[in-house]
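Need tokens for this chain, all 131 residues.
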Amino acid sequence: MPHTPHPPRCHGFRISALDLLILVAGGLGITWLWRNENPLGWMAAIALGHFFLFCNVFLVWRRWELLWAATFIGNVMIHVALGSLPALSVLLWQVPMTILVMVLQIRSPWYHGIWAPRLNPRLNDYLHHTL
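Here are the structure tokens for all 131 residues:
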């Protein structure tokens, strides 16, 4: 089988037509949930916001995304078990995980998200596949 070259690596903010479609569909779904006073509205908004932040702005690795998602689910489950699910309380517990994920990603030699030329001194190594 012939070798297919990989597309060149790039850095910085990025967005695709599929990302825009997900954001628009998610936004419409969230609006519908809020109009129907469904508490899933704010949870969906948090998830969609983090999708955009992690996938388009900071280009977070999948393992960090999954770590964040697992803690978000655990966070919501703990609040439900305690009998209260206020958005602010969930966010107060989740924001430190968001910050941790972003810091871990930015400090890695593979960081290639927004401001990568300033934040990652090894960006050229990443872009040229030498890590």
